[in-house]
Inverse folding.
DNA sequence: GTCTATAGCCAGATAGAC
DNA sequence: GTCTATCTGGCTATAGAC
């Protein structure tokens, strides 16, 4: 293992810790000391890997983006029909109901927080554009000319349900909505 | 005008300023100095009306709650059938599309931010429970035994669409979804 | 009740030894 | 590349004159 491997490992640990802390506490309430401690890295060393706190936040956003793309690719590989794929994506997003009920959707709550800032859209828009575009393509493959509207409806329904489940601290709400969405997709 | 009237006026100005600043910047990024300046009140004087910043946040939440109740009461008075009322509530919530596209739904983004904190649910749950309960009652009045599920779907759809419209900075997205929801309600 | 000045704290960022 | 010590600024909250 080379030095750059070690460096990459530390950087990766910092980003992973940042993802978790930001999900649990939000961007503003998460300090660099929090992230450094969670990653087992001394505070001062953080600045060797990231110039500013904002750089870490950008890395978190990009990590979520990569994970979203990976998840959609895996679903596309594992399911043959567009309907199965759409049900799989909602089920996959809704998977960790306890975590969503406690801290909200990781990407949704991140978008909500960063959207207050002037540079929000440039950073976060892709986080929601990627699943919406993907779902639109699936609906269109089912022969629907209003695929984009249906995609917006699907993702909005997931994000809204995650907010309700989080605010009510009710994981069952997310589960029930996942079942109802599956029935809706089957009816299309 | 008595002294307590003046005091109430000042307090009301502070709360109104806090509502706006919190909507635009979020809770964490809004300082007491921001609120005081927007209300035209010296910083030190804020503490005569509110012991802590958290007390102001609580006042903001209660203001939103009062406004939600007032809005629902007005809709109930102005529309005869449950279907008309449900369409009116979604239309009312979606009204200021430009503001939503820039800063998100005032109550939704507030819930998302406060939900990260341990005391979140106790404070914000009513903000979403009130419209959900109200919508459930309307759907049940239409003879639907699954009124609660439909109410969750309706509010989730609004909140999720607001998040998408905000992230994409696209007011038109909110407008289009309002029309689609109206059609959906008509079909029930 | 009102307002100025400031205390106290904490977070982001940096300097510089190793 | 790593880490300790520290600087700097801004924010909540308070003290105390008026």
């Amino acid at each position: 293992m080379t030095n750059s491997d070690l460096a990459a490992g530390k950087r990766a640990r910092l980003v992973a810790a940042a993802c978790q802390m930001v999900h649990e506490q939000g961007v503003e309430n998460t300090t660099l000391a929090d992230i450094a401690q969670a990653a087992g890295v001394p505070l001062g060393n953080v600045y060797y890997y990231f110039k500013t706190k904002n750089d870490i936040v950008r890395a978190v956003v990009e990590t979520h983006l990569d994970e979203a793309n990976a998840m959609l690719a895996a679903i596309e590989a594992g399911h043959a029909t567009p309907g199965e794929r759409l049900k799989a994506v909602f089920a996959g997003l809704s998977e960790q109901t306890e975590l969503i009920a406690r801290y909200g959707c990781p990407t949704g709550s991140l978008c909500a927080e960063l959207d207050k800032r002037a540079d929000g859209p440039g950073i976060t828009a892709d986080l929601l554009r990627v699943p919406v575009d993907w779902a639109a393509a699936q609906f269109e493959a089912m022969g629907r000319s209003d695929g984009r509207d249906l995609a917006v409806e699907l993702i909005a329904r997931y994000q809204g349900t995650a907010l309700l489940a989080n605010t009510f601290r009710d994981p069952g709400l997310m589960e029930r909505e996942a079942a109802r969405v599956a029935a809706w997709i089957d009816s299309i």
